[in-house]
Amino acid sequence: MGTLSLRDRAILLVVIVLALYGLAAILWFMTFERDWTKSAKAYESAVKTYQKEAGLIAKRGDLQQQYEEEKEKIPSLAENELANATWMGRLGTLASECNVAVTRQNYGKEEQEDLLNKLEIDLEWTASLQSLVKFLYALETADHAMFDVRSLGISNSGKNTGYLKGKMTICCAYLRDEGEKGKSK
C-alpha cells in the first residue's frame, strides 16, 4: 500500500468495504432463506394440524354418540364385588358351553386406568379347533362383558388326536359402581 496513491488507496478501501457489505448481504439472504423455508414448513404443519382438529371438532357429535354406545357396553361391577371370581366364573361358563376344557387359570392384579378397571386372566386349555374358534367368538360377542385376548399360544395335544392345547391371556375390562348393585349378570 506504500506505493499506491491516496486516491488508489481510497478506491481500494471502498471496494473492500463494498465487498464486506456484499458478503454480509449474501450471508443474511442465505440465513433469511433458511429461516423462511423453516417457517413455511412449520406453517404447513400447523395448517395440517388445524385441519385435522377442525375435522375432529366437526365430528364431535358422532364421536360422542359412539363413545356413549361403547360406554354402555362396558360391564359394571359393584364396589364390593370380587372381579376375579366374577370374570373367572364367567370364563369358565363360556368355556364349558363351547366344550373347551380349562386345565388351569390364574388371575393378575386388578389395575385401574382412569375409570376403567382391568383384570388379566391366564388360561391353559384343551379343545378341538372348532371348539376353540367357538370359544373365541363367544368371548368377542359376550353380553355384559368386555374381553380382549392379549396372547394366544396353540400347540398340538400329544395324547388326544384332533385336540389342541395352549395358553391364552384374556383381559377383562369393566367399571366399578359407586353403589351396591352391579350390572355384571
Structure characteristics:
185 residues, alpha+beta, Alpha-Beta Plaits, 2 domains, six-stranded mixed beta sheet, 4 helices, 6 strands, 51% helix, elongated, disordered C terminus
How does this structure look, described?
It is a single chain. Helices cover about 50% and strands about 25% of the residues. The protein is of the alpha+beta class and about 180 residues long. The protein has two domains: about 1-60; about 75-175, Ribosomal protein S6/Translation elongation factor EF1B (Alpha-Beta Plaits, 2-Layer Sandwich). Strands 1, 2, 3, 4, 5 and 6 form a six-stranded mixed sheet that branches. The model is unreliable at about 180-185 (pLDDT under 50).
State the low-pLDDT regions, or none. Answer: 180-185
Radius of gyration: 35 Å
**What spatial form do the alpha-carbon principal axes imply?**
elongated
Total count of helical runs of at least 4 residues:
4
Which oligomeric form is depicted?
single chain
Strand content: 25-35%
**How many individual domains?**
2
CATH C-level class of the largest domain is: Alpha Beta
Which CATH architecture of the largest domain is right?
2-Layer Sandwich
Average of pLDDT: 86
Structural class by helix and strand composition: alpha+beta
Which percent range fits the helix content?
Answer: 40-55%
- The number of distinct β-strands equals 6
Measured between the Cα atoms of the first and last residue, the distance is 103 Å
